[in-house]
Input
Amino acid sequence: MLPIGYGKNACWFRFSRYETFENEKDVKGIYIIPAQKSEKIVYNPFDYAEDLISDYLNFGKAIFDGIEESEKIGGALNLVTKYGLLGVITYNEVEKYLRGFKYHNRKIYCFYTDGEFIGKKTFQEYIDMIFPLPNRQLFFDLDDFISSHSSFERNYSERVNMIVNKAKELYSNFKSVTDFKNTNEIENMPDKEYIRKVLNANFYIKNVDLVIEHDEVNGATLNWSADNLFKMIDIIYALKLVDKKSGLAACKNCGNPFLKSRKDMEYCSNACGNSYRVKKCKRLKA
Ligand SMILES: [Zn+2]
Output
């Protein structure tokens, strides 16, 4: 049996305000960090699954269609303000390292999600990438979990490119899936091309745990489990992809990704439906 449910008890956090800064040393680029004294808000990403996925996909589409660098920063900041940072390194991993349990003296090959090679890093250098600002360092005290954890969340930053690449990766898969669905005449297609289409449409959910959860009503159930937004997005996207009734579709008129509220829905909005019918009518008259 495969887990079909997820997220009843999932939680993530965001801050009420974020700001950007430019890191000029080491891993250069524009970063996003919670604004000082902003408020922490805990929420369940699963409750916002539809918005989360369509926001990420539409940002991914905009990037594919071609937008300016400043629009990428604005778009990423907008997503982070709504849903929080992706949380690629978790407090748990950092704590294990700082307590001396993990990764000592081991070099990690670091890549961005688009495959760009960052370099061979020690875990400490890896942590320094996330906390590059001198006045926003991680405070860590073995005996003070609450302050250490809070310092981690408040000072943790991520490169804009992390968010941009996540959106691009999702949209690129969505495009391949749409392309595969729209494939007619499979019989006449060369095998090689067909296989390429099938493989491109595959989506891998990486580093996600499965967990048996217990409650009084359902007893033991098998669930997905993830400890950061990056993985939660993958799970939610995957579940929306396989959901035939209210899952993802590409609008027949504008091509934008949208979530269906009925199985036979074809357009992202009434306006797009009308516009498509008008165009079709004009084509028929011509
Ligand atoms: Zn549309």
Summary: The chain has a mean pLDDT of 86. The chain has two domains: 12-242, 246-286. The longest strand covers residues 209-215. The two ends are 54 Å apart (CA to CA).
